[in-house]
Amino acid sequence: MADIKSGPNPLFLREEDLRQGIELLFYAYRDFTAEPDAMLAKIGLGRAHHRVVYFVGRYPSITVTELLGILQITKQSLSRVLSDLVEQEYIAQRPGTKDRRQRLLTLTEKGVELERALSDAQRARIAQAYRAAGAASVEGFRTVMLGIIDPEDRAKFPPPGKR
Question: With a threshold of 0.90, does the pTM exceed it?
């Protein structure tokens, strides 16, 4: 088996290596979002709606403030998207138990079905890529992705097996 460290020295990455990494992220994101985008377009929703549905499904009873922190969008932008999702009965809002001013967000049954449909293709795409790459590459990918995201968000992703 080849030594993992025998590839390009990460301390001296060439401009072309960095540009290819950027380009790969663009292509991967395009393909990763294509099928969900098509499903959403059929029901008059877009990528912003997908992000909200995903994170509300991932973190049931998430507060609006917590969601704003994850998405890093304005209250106005979230309000518009959330209004659509509540109106179309994909998301339910209820007041907080300790602070009635808080709004807790959960997926409705209809929202759970939408989230599942949107995520199934993405999970399959990631699973296929992970299987083809192997465990060491998957861990390398995880390390690279953690290195790209802002440091304050890294703690949200404990090592596998420690969740």
Answer: no
The residue to which tokens 């809002």 are assigned: 93
Return per-residue pLDDT of the chain as tens, 163 residues. Answer: 444 555 666 666 788 889 999 999 999 999 999 999 999 999 999 999 999 999 999 999 999 999 999 999 999 999 999 999 999 999 999 987 877 778 899 999 999 999 999 999 999 999 999 999 999 999 999 999 999 999 999 988 888 776 5
DSSP-based three-state secondary structure for 89: coil
**Two tokens at 121?**
């293709």
User: How many whole angstroms separate alpha carbon 47 and alpha carbon 65?
Assistant: 20
The first and second tokens of residue 127, run together, are 């699973």
Burial class of residue 8, CB neighbours in 10 A (0-12, 13-18, 19+)? exposed
Q: Torsion over CA of 73, 108, 57 and 63, rounded to 10 degrees?
A: 50
Query: What is the rounded distance in angstroms from the CA atom of residue 28 to the CA atom of residue 116?
Result: 20
Q: Three-state DSSP class for 93?
A: strand
